[in-house]
Amino acid sequence: MTDNRIELTIVTPERAVVDEAVDELQIPGSEGYFGVLPGHAPLFSELKVGEVAYRRGDRWSFLAVAWGFVEVQPNHVRILAETAERAHEIDLDRAMRAKQRAEERIARGGEDVDYGRALVALERALIRIQVARKAHHTASA
Amino acid sequence: MPSLLDIRRRIRSVKNTQQLTKAMKTVSAAKLRRAQERVFSARPYAEQLKRVLGNLTARLEDVSHPLLEIRPEERILFLVITADRGLCGAFNANIIRTAQAFIREHQTQTTHLMMVGRKGRDFFRRRAAPIRSEFVNIFSRLDYGHAKDISEAIIQAYTNAEVDAVYMVYNEFKSVIQQRVVVEKVLPLSRADLKETEPRLDYIFEQSPQEIFNRLLPRYVEVQVYRALLESAASEHGARMASMDTATRNAGEMIDMLTLNMNRIRQAAITREIIEVVSGAGV
Prior knowledge:
The complex is a heterodimer. Chain A is of the alpha+beta class. Helices cover 30% and strands 44% of the residues of chain A. The relative contact order of chain A is 0.17. Helix content of chain B is 60%, strand content 15%. A five-stranded mixed sheet of chain B has the order 3-2-1-4-5, with helices on both faces. In chain B, strand 4 (165-175) and strand 5 (178-187) form a beta hairpin. The A-B interface holds A 9, 11-16, 29-31, 41-46, 69, 71, 73, 78, 80, 82 and B 38, 41-42, 44-46, 48-49, 52, 55, 143-144, 147, 201-207, 209, 212, 215-216, 222-223, 226.
């Protein structure tokens, strides 16, 4: 089914991140992760903080994304995300520091801590770390 | 008549200035290229967003949203985008002039100012104009977050009905040497901009279309503001490059003139000395 691929575009306000034909992908939708294969029914969903994984041939690629929208058409997927970083673009140290900061804020507690924000920050940091590590594995494999 | 030493000193000083303007020109050229790329890479998102919005609008029975609500324009929020730095020709002056004209034209209404860029802020502050809020020194590390902050402030003012319309003025990037001052309405959003542009597909929605529409609409404002900021940044570098180029050329002319002058004076001094020697020998 090499001629039956999905055209995947991922754009953020600052740049176009991905524009590629892929065989399958996984997206963090509002109701949890969902997979898309060619011929998927048209779907519209919110995008959460999470990891987008897509396969081309037998190679998987990963991105850390946060907030936005997904539009699925039978042979076209468009992702509008606020941020999207390919695994190898992520600064692991920075993500680790962000995680630590978020954890400290949550642990400290008190009235001046915005829990919602701290939790979101933590979630993002965790996803970024997870995705960045995958880049490491595929590179060393 | 200035002494030889004075002129030499002057030439040296002009030469130093010339080196400076030349360096600034080179820096601006490099920054301009990057700024242009950013304008370009922001386009896909804006296009996709517009398309998606069009698609959603077509599906909604009743398109209504606080950001689409048209009210009589009695209080206007005016977003004025200048640069943080000078030495870029008429770049800031053009914006300020247009902004003042706009305020005069809308004298019967109340105009609140929202300033982006230090130059414009300083100007209106000196004139004790009421500035509602300001965003300065953002252009050296401009990113989408700034557009978000500005949009949030605008949207809040609009949805709280503190203002009835939002306009913005900025320099649009026409070409490297040409900028155009444009005044645009930001809010209320125009329904015409949200027209459906492609054949309809029956989507499965994980949330209601209305809900998604409501969340996307503010994004549209952000994108517009972001584009204006990027255009302004590119224009600024273009304007600075052009004015530094002129400055470098003027300095060159000045050096030529001073050199000529200096040679004349030196020649005159030599001639005088020769005459003195000759007339001394004749005695």
